[in-house]
Write a structure and sequence with these properties.
This protein has 54 residues and is mainly α. The chain has helices spanning 3-31, 34-39, 47-52. The longest helix has 29 residues, at 3-31.
């Protein structure tokens, strides 16, 4: 495996780890009730955008 291929594999692994972490965060936020979301400054419609930093 060349260095370039190794870097590509690392990038893929990092992207998968980010994806899994973001999906976990979305699930956890989605499990909160609306009052708790409001306490942290979010509405249910903003969960995905907040997690992805948009």
């Amino acid at each position: 495996m060349s260095i370039k291929e190794g870097i590509e594999v690392m990038n893929i692994r990092q992207k998968m780890q980010q994806y899994v972490a973001r999906r976990r965060a979305i699930r956890e936020l989605d499990a909160m009730d609306d009052r708790r979301l409001a306490d942290i400054g979010l509405t249910r419609a903003e969960i995905v955008s907040a997690v992805y930093g948009r």
